[in-house]
Write a structure and sequence with these properties.
The complex is a heterodimer. By secondary structure, chain A is mainly beta. Chain A has 1 helix and 7 strands. Chain A has a 4-stranded antiparallel sheet with strand order 4-3-6-7, with no helix packed on it. Chain A has a 3-stranded antiparallel sheet with strand order 1-2-5, with no helix packed on it. Chain B has a two-stranded antiparallel sheet with strand order 1-4. In chain B, strands 2-3 form a two-stranded antiparallel ribbon. Helices cover 60% and strands 4% of the residues of chain B. Classes of the chains: A mainly beta, B mainly alpha.
Chain lengths: 143, 474
């Protein structure tokens, strides 16, 4: 019986330990700060706009970054929203038109490749509503 | 024994070339179980160590998307294939070896009340903890299934986990009553003269060692009238020395239309009612009004505790409402029919009429997710491989792979499924009425109930859907 318990314990250790070798677990220091808001805010169903702000670690606006944006619902299997911007940006702000196709909780992942080739990424959680409580306020969203 | 209901239609899957032989093969079940065991280990591994984001994790994709879709399809077109290939029962073999068993499952628990309570808790936890959105919790759910099955097998002789505990099993048992396949026997006379009854008792070789186990849930094939409690493991077919066990096709909704196919018990009937009402409440949990109800309840009770508010909503929708409506409908039916039969008998003999509609609502809900996201498993696998430095399927996941049906088809299909479920329920109800020689008045409350449930389901599916789950704003 001890043999089986030992085998099971080793198996579990390997199982959890092997996760550390995964690329997604390898953290690298971020080279920039990313903030996000939507217009309107809070986001409502239908056409909308993401406003993404990129600054370097000293708070200086970064233009001409390449942004990869992916919006996912929290349930597996829902079609994501994908968007990409190449270059542009004004005072570090990037406007990205998108369309929310379903209400509920969304996770927007932004991956920025800066002009110097370094990258930064950040996820934002948003609730898309049916539209009763939307304003045009600019409130940069937090994680 | 000759009067026993027997659904043979001439079609016996166990006699089909290839597949029949495979199913009867001693290790036939094991192959399917090992495949699902592999999937279960993958779920635990990726759930615990992978990206904690449902769309990108295999755990959430497999469990809440693939599994549920395939289970509903299997139940509709074949039978209880998940229980047949259930990986949770595999460690039981080990448990049996170490077993300190000898004890039978306590008599007081040999019913569906515990299964019903666990199904309720499971559905509540699913909603409260947003299980679909958490790979980590999903992995633990799978782990607990293994642990529970193993532990119960260690202490008890029969398979109490499958028969009395497992919420998936309870769901599948009810769902499989609409399935077209059922275990039965080819020739009743063979069973009549059979001495060993190996299908139940198991068979041993000349040394007295177990060769094949008998039915884990202790069903005797010639007397099987229902798919309830049948895991479709086909151990009975493998153990039968006369090759007399059949996996036969049966007419549409046949079991539900047979007046004596189900035992007339409160516990079983309530399980069906909860199954049906939970189909609606589960769909309701994905629509905007749930927030309003939660907020209203929280304000009324002056509590910001989401779990408490949700528990109350769940208790109301899944327990109190079916209980009240059930008793009201059966009381009205008896009153209109001037019947004096016991409440339990009247309640349980009509309850099968709810199954087609309950199943249809679950099918429409899970079918929606499956139709919109069946292909999402591909980018999740790509992501998993890339995460391990393997570029076999490319170096970027194709996240746009998702739906297998056009989105514009989904609502009409959902409505069609609900209407088919309603039609099936009405078909069953009419047949019950014909068998029992009931008046139309006696059936009217049941018919109104079916209409009400169908309208509620249609209303829910036409509501805009909202997917919750970040745990952000509740």
């Amino acid at each position: 019986m001890h043999k089986y318990i030992l085998l099971f314990s080793v198996g579990m250790l390997l199982l959890v330990g092997s996760g550390c070798a995964r690329e997604s677990q390898q953290e690298s220091p971020e080279s920039a700060q990313i903030n996000l808001t939507t217009v309107p805010y809070p986001p409502i169903l239908g056409k909308s706009r993401l406003v993404i702000q990129i600054t370097d670690n000293e708070g200086i606006a970064v233009n001409d970054a390449e942004l990869d944006i992916k919006g996912d619902m929290t349930h597996a299997g829902m079609v994501p929203i994908l968007a990409q911007t190449v270059g542009g940006g004004e005072d570090g702000f990037y406007n990205v038109p998108i369309e929310w196709e379903m209400g509920g909780d969304w996770v927007v992942s932004v991956r920025a490749t800066l002009p110097d080739g370094t990258t930064a990424r950040r996820q934002f959680e948003l609730r898309v509503t049916m539209g009763d409580d939307a304003t045009c306020g600019q409130d940069l969203g937090d994680e | 024994m000759s009067s026993i209901y027997k659904p043979t239609s001439g079609v016996d899957v166990l006699r089909w070339p290839g597949i029949g032989r495979f199913l009867r093969w001693k290790h036939g079940r094991l192959v399917g179980q090992l495949l699902l065991l592999l999937a279960a280990l993958l779920i635990i591994y990726d759930g615990l160590t992978g990206p904690q984001f449902a769309p990108e994790n295999l755990a959430t994709n497999i469990v809440w998307m693939q599994y549920r879709g395939f289970v509903m399809l299997a139940l509709l077109f074949a039978g209880n294939l998940f229980c047949m290939n259930c990986p949770f029962t595999l460690p039981r073999t080990l448990a049996r070896r170490w077993s300190i068993r000898g004890r039978r499952w306590p008599r007081a628990l040999r019913n569906k009340w515990l299964a019903l309570a666990i199904l309720f808790i499971y559905l509540f936890l699913y909603e409260w903890l947003d299980l679909w959105a958490s790979p980590w919790l999903t992995a633990w759910v799978v782990f607990f299934y293994f642990a529970a099955s193993f532990t119960l097998e260690l202490f008890f002789t029969e398979s109490p986990f499958c028969k009395y505990v497992c919420p998936l099993g309870s769901f599948n048992y009810i769902g499989s009553t609409v399935s077209p396949l059922q275990v039965t026997v080819s020739n009743q006379d063979v069973c009549r003269t059979c001495v060993g009854k190996e299908c139940v008792n198991g068979s041993r070789n000349k040394d007295g060692r177990w060769q094949m186990l008998g039915c884990g849930t202790e069903l005797f094939p010639p007397q099987v009238q229902s798919n309830l409690d049948c895991t479709l493991c086909l151990d009975c077919a493998r153990a039968c020395p006369h090759e007399n066990v059949a996996l036969a096709a049966r007419p549409l909704l046949n079991e539900l239309r047979q007046p004596m196919a189900w035992p007339r018990r409160w516990d079983l009937s309530f399980l069906v009612w909860v199954f049906t009402f939970a189909a609606l409440s589960n769909a309701f949990g994905m629509t905007p009004p749930i927030y309003a109800v939660e907020a209203w309840l929280g304000g009324m009770l002056r509590t910001g505790n989401e779990a408490f508010a949700l528990l109350l909503i769940f208790a109301l929708l899944n327990v109190l409402l079916p209980l009240t409506l059930g008793l009201l409908v059966v009381w009205l039916g008896r009153l209109l029919d001037r019947s004096r039969e016991p409440l339990r008998v009247s309640f349980s003999k009509h309850t099968p009429a709810l199954v087609p509609l309950g199943f249809a609502v679950w099918f429409a809900h899970y079918g929606f997710h499956f139709a919109t996201g069946a292909l999402a498993i591909i980018p999740a696998v790509q992501n998993f491989l890339i995460d391990h430095g393997l570029l076999l399927l490319g170096d970027r996941p194709n996240w746009m792979l998702s739906n297998i049906l056009p989105f514009s088809w989904l609502l009409p299909l959902q409505l069609l499924v609900v209407l088919a479920g309603f039609g099936g329920g009405y078909f069953v109800l009419s047949d019950i009425g014909r068998h029992e020689k009931e008046s139309f008045a006696a059936q009217l409350p049941w018919l109104l109930l079916l209409i009400g449930l169908a309208i509620t389901a249609i209303y829910l599916f036409t509501l805009p859907m909202e997917m919750r789950g970040t745990g952000l704003i509740h």
